[in-house]
Design brief:
CATH superfamily of the largest domain: Enolase-like C-terminal domain
CATH topology of the largest domain: TIM Barrel
CATH class of the largest domain: Alpha Beta
Structural class: alpha/beta
Radius of gyration: 21 Å
Order of helices and strands: EEEHHHHEEEHHEEEEHEHEHEHHEHEHE
Strand content: 15-25%
Helix content: 25-40%
CATH architecture of the largest domain: Alpha-Beta Barrel
Number of domains: 2
Shape: globular
Bound molecules: 2-phosphoglycolic acid, zinc ion
Strand order of the largest sheet: 5-6-7-11-12-13-14-15
Length: 424
Amino acid sequence: MKKFTITGVFAREILDCRWNPTVQVDIWVNNETLGRADVPAGRSTGSNEARELRDKEKRYAGQGVRKAVKNVNEILGPAIIGMDVTDQRKVDEKLRSLDGTKNKSKLGANAIVGVSVAVARAASNAVGLPLYRYVNCNAHVLPVPLLNLLNGGKLTSNDLDFQEFCIFPIGAETFSEAMFIGNAVNNELREIVIKKYGKIAANVGDEGGFATPIKKVREAMECLVQAVERSGHARKIGYGFDCAATHWYNPKTKKYTLEGVEYTTDGLFDYYKALCRDYPIVSIEDPFAEDDTKGFIRATKELGIQIVGDDFYCTNPARIRERAPKGAANALLWKFNQIGTLSEALDAAELAYRQGFGIMVSERSGETEDPIIADFVVGINAGQIKTGAGVRSERTAKYNRLLLIEEELGSQARYAGTDFRCAL
Ligand code: PGA
Ligand code: ZN
């Protein structure tokens, strides 16, 4: 059998879509095949995420990643040279042991995850398979794209507390149809917000949704619903939010402040219940703060929709093992850099599936043009992808990769549609 030996590892500092530095890693196999991957970065991060290493020097306002790059080039890289590139778990274990901390803070999660995912890409190139196929020979599910058309929270400079207002084109027949439905709604929404709030309303936030100066959730929903109705696709569309409630929760008072009003966990639950009564909402991400297990359990039990854990789970197998059996959430937001190695992220996915969870593969708000999550979402047959609106190229890159995968899979491609939580 041919050997696929890692013969070179090289990292460099590049830029993400916020003009912040990030890590790019090259892995060479048998001195002839290259696998390259970029590391994304969050802004609305959970406190239990693996820790990225930033230089904290004057250049790039402290955001430089030269130290992380050096850690790849001088510590992580040399340690995996000579290993088999298809031995993902062994490589990841090596990376983890060199760091030695629980949250990868010593060498930097941005250094470690860059190597980990570049290894997967290099392996797929070396064996001559598309990455999604290398991840899984049964990969065939095209995801429902959560089109994040209005942005708030930490990802814009408007006053909306919820971070993302998404449409789910669950009634489309194919992924490519979902794309043109999204485009039609986005065009209508653009006209609506410009008419109501002036030209500035059509500027976009970090994930490509409009950063309209709206203050209230229901006001935002009215614009979105109107756009959906005008597009003519209303029957094919559900709605969803990422509330990112960790960021408007005060752990000292144990209260949430939403639109200037304070809520207890139960009070906020009532707020969601009324929203779900008034709109066809199919999914809510992080409706409560990262450690408000009680809120998550209640929402999961009583709202009867998808409840997604982002900051709540941090793609962390230990957190899933502890919290999922309690009935806290019924879907996992899957961000590979939250945990810091691909094999741990794949463990998290499998654990979540075994709890009957859905999985939503997600971008970070700080992305590059690397479309790797498109391969991962198909690779794990997740059925849902969250990667923003298609008006920013770092988001479009993922959609374009999915369009290509859809074409490659041909008649074997299955669009998740209304089965987005379990599309097999
Ligand atoms: P982040 O935001 O990438 O800044 O964490 C996205 C999210 O909260 O889902
Ligand atoms: Zn989130």
